[in-house]
Amino acid sequence: MRRVVVVLLIILAPFSADAAGFETWHEHHDKATPIWVLPKATAPDNMRWSNAEMPGDVESKRFSQPEVCRGCHGVIYDQWKGSMMANAWTDPVFIAVYKKYIANAGTEMEKAEVAMCSRCHTPSGYLQNNMGRYFQGELSEMDKRGVSCDICHSVEASNGTGNGSFIINPGDASKGDFGTKFGPRNDSVSPIHASKHSELHTRGDFCGMCHDVGHAHNLMTVENTYTEWRRSPYNTGNPKTSTHCQDCHMRQNPTHPATGATPLPDSPGFAALEDLGAKKRSHVWQHYFIGGNFVVTTLLGNQQTARMAQDRLEHALTIEVLDQGKTMKKGRTERLRIKVINSGAGHYLPTGLTFVREMWIHLQVKTADQKTVFESGYLDAKGDIEPNAVVYKTVLGEGGEERKPTFFLPAAFQVVYDKRIPPKGYSLEEFHIAVPADAKGPLTVHADVNYRSAPQSLINELLGKDAPALPVFTMGKTETTLAVE
Ligand code: HEC
Ligand code: HEC
Ligand code: HEC
Ligand code: HEC
Ligand code: HEC
Predict the structure, then answer these.
(1) Mutation test residue for ligand 4: of 84, 159, 230, 245, the one with most atoms within 8 Å of CB
(2) Based on the domain organization, do 174 and 207 belong to the same domain?
(3) pLDDT of 188 above 60
């Protein structure tokens, strides 16, 4: 695989020690913004060496609310509206976590990390330097719309990848100037806004602006989806032959999950109302932006998005029992190997918020008379995964030798556990089954790979008595029988 050279640029200056109230929190932003810059030869032509906008640089009234775009782009609007990005600020799980972090951030370093959250979860609220972003609920209507149309399509360039490295150039909607919309086409004509081709928008590097997250202060990797993809076989090094984020996530439609294991179909049609000059396209980029989240999308009433998320999760991996045809000896401990292949995701499985997401193997071995001989990966009485299970995830730890595991990101310093499956790669797990002397054969081996958005105990802690029982989703399963003698 090609070696990827990533230059790390850190814009860091000393912190002032006197920050007390929210008013002074914003001072932390411009002091800690790690951004990764690609070598020029492999970067899109509108990735450039310059500073990203900082709080106060762009007024949010310059952006249009998504309902303005809906007038002519109704189909795209309906797709986007159910997505997690449309709800990046109103997502109740995000709100619960964010409030907790605000309440508990004590040191300057912890506050610096919390000050960054709004950069991706309400980009316009962040750029406006709206202090309401620390209180929740006091933002303008525009700022509550999360990652909306006019955020993505006012991105003129990026200054690298990671940590919200967008260079944004909206019109001024408050004066009826809708500015230039940057997009994939070079022949697009709209009656209300100028259009301009942006190479960045056609490449995974666009998503990489927000889908690589580094800790604001200590640079620890928090989310790494873009870098995982960049180092994967899906990125051939040639943008024309690569399978970009968009090829999977903006080709999924209600009938096709569009993963590495399934076709990446075209959705022919019009990207805007035909009467207004839209051209017939062999593929209109879809805006469902489906990931693994079927819980919050269900909670928010977006059934279609939730169903499509399940369709996606079901086509991400395959699971196989090796040692097929093996005879299990009574009274002995026998080895059983299970292979989990990341056949569908363009990044690790799981990806994104991997210190919260859970993916694990549930293995059951039963005798012919239904006695359980072995079980791994069941849920305990509290709904948590039993401690000996094979779990694919990361765990973050505090600094110091103790490496104490934590969900409190502001104080996290290092990754203390990391077990995930690389794109087009696999993980081989060994289980040791004690076969009882009186076992009645054949043995039935049943193996599932399960997915859950978060540990049950974390959700209980965050949402209190309102916490829903988090559903467990089976991403893949297999069954086989083994003779006993
Ligand atoms: C009055 C109708 C109208 C409104 C309102 C409107 N657009 Fe458009 N837009 C169009 C038409 C027509 C096209 C051309 C489509 C084509 O090329 O087939 C277009 C094209 C685009 C493109 C493609 C640009 C390219 O070069 O690839 C983007 C992106 C876009 N619009 C974004 C937006 C956003 C964001 C909003 C809301 C702020 C918006 N539009 C509001 C009519 C409109
Ligand atoms: C550089 C951009 C960026 C920054 C900064 C950022 N996030 Fe996120 N956040 C994301 C992305 C991208 C995802 C989606 C990943 C996924 O779904 O696995 C996400 C997902 C989440 C989720 C999961 C929501 C759910 O419903 O499952 C929570 C919670 C969250 N972020 C909280 C925070 C907090 C708190 C901060 C500040 C400490 C923060 N984020 C800072 C980009 C960012
Ligand atoms: C997360 C960023 C993001 C958001 C939010 C977003 N878009 Fe897009 N949009 C893109 C990207 C990226 C492409 C081009 C994909 C490619 O070429 O690979 C695109 C393509 C388009 C196109 C051209 C489609 C075509 O095939 O000609 C239009 C029109 C458009 N978007 C309008 C909108 C509207 C309207 C909204 C809000 C309802 C919206 N977008 C929200 C990122 C976004
Ligand atoms: C301006 C920052 C930003 C950009 C640019 C961006 N994202 Fe996101 N994305 C987010 C945030 C923040 C979330 C998490 C929202 C939440 O869960 O609360 C997210 C969530 C998602 C999810 C849902 C994850 C889940 O758990 O279901 C998908 C899929 C996704 N993004 C794909 C993309 C793709 C593909 C692109 C590029 C075309 C892109 N994003 C560009 C900020 C961004
Ligand atoms: C080859 C197809 C493919 C490509 C390319 C791809 N993805 Fe995915 N993505 C998937 C599949 C399948 C899933 C569902 C499994 C999962 O949730 O981990 C997924 C899930 C996700 C999630 C949700 C993770 C979670 O469970 O919280 C995010 C966010 C995401 N992708 C973003 C991206 C971004 C950003 C890129 C480009 C840097 C990208 N994807 C490239 C197939 C792809």
Answers:
(1) 84
(2) yes
(3) yes
